[in-house]
Amino acid sequence: MKRIASEERRLGAVFQRALLVALAGIGCSTKGTEAVATDLDAGMTEAGVPVEGGALDGGKEGGLPDKCQPTPYTPVPANSCGDYLRYPCGLPPDLTVRGDCYFALNDCAALCSDIHYSCRAADGYCSTTLDGGRDAASAADAGDGGIDAAVPTGVVVPDSTGAVLIDCATCPGSAGRVPAGLERATVRARSALGAYFASAARLEAASVTAFRRLRDELALHGAPQELLDAARAAEQDEVRHTRAMARLARRHGGRYERPRVSEVAPRALQTIAQENAVEGCARETFGALLATWQASHVDDPELAATLSAIALDETRHAALSWAIARWSLTQLDADASARMGAAWATALDDVAAGGDGAGERGAGVASIAGLPSREQRRQLASELRGLWDGMLAA
Questions:
Q1: What does the pLDDT read at residue 229?
Q2: Cβ(209)–Cβ(195) below 8 Å
Q3: Distance between the two ends of the chain, CA-based, in angstroms?
């Protein structure tokens, strides 16, 4: 296992620096887990839906005329972790907006048409500067030249046509290896925390299929036995992770649903390598770093022990992904290699832009689950940006 051990050492050094950089911006909180849990429970109905936020129909059931009904939207470049909906007449009334233009979970249930883990105003539709303006990149993405009037930061602002674009996140707060063909499903839970862990359990279970398929496809392309053996071990790790997250979900009123994954025909090495760059070298690598962060930021002993064990396993899985990427580069031409690197960079941007814990699940869930803030998440992801060039230079 020399290849993977070498990659694991490389990741360990980068992770250590990333954690130190992100920690530099942390403030101290005097509120303990029990107090936060009380706050969380106080914000739930008997069905486990957050009380805050507008009516559950979000104004969509009989509240919006036909011309104002939302329509699907595909941004450029496309974001594989988001389903976008364009509200041509602006948003329904009485929605609760959190920091960075995230909506309360019950509002997301109305705003988004399918399964989601959070929702927010898309980039370019949220004032993010002190004078309420958009940066150039956000304005260009929105396509309307930006905001002229002064608007408080964190406020949802329609474009020049009066429309608002909503980003319904289809990937969870933590990133991992998701297999092609994963079908969507509804997460059932009596609390937001139960929903968080139920979602995590479902994706851990999907990773079992992802590693099994990865092993079989690598074998078809003559990959080294070390990589095949490591993929089999990772598959077994994910079984344990699924059980651990399902147990935490049950503890908090969540119900784990077994994922359904459609079969795919045998694929070319270039396709496999690009998927590995995205799911392994970007998302799973960030997921390992995120689990490492969470393990040191939770008070619950059971959760801390579970996350610590998962963090170690996921770091090893991420190391496997980088070992596969390094081997793949020896098998592919320059154009295919360049596409791998571009796909990796885009995926890393996706996870860096993913929501903060407070925005996605509420302050109680963020604290109990040890999630970083949005800015800390960006800092963590930023420290991973040299990994690809570092691999090419080695």
A1: 96
A2: no
A3: 18
pLDDT for res 320: 97
pLDDT of residue 220: 96
**CA nearest 52: which of 363, 355, 356?**
363
Query: Structure tokens of 170?
Result: 């289809």
Q: How far apart are CA 199 and CA 288, in angstroms?
A: 17
- pLDDT at position 228 is 97
Query: What residues have CB less than 8 Å from 151, skipping those under 6 apart?
Result: 127, 131, 132, 133, 157
Domains annotated for the chain, with CATH where assigned, are 2-30+193-393 (1.20.1260), 51-170 (no CATH)
H helix or E strand, kind and range, residue 166: strand 164-169
| CA proximity to 217, closest of 165, 174, 273 | 273
Q: Give Cα separations from 198 to 174, 252, 391 (angstroms).
A: 13, 9, 35
Confidence grade of residue 333 (pLDDT, cut at 50, 70, 90): very high
Evaluate whether 116 touches 187 at the Cβ level (below 8 Å): no
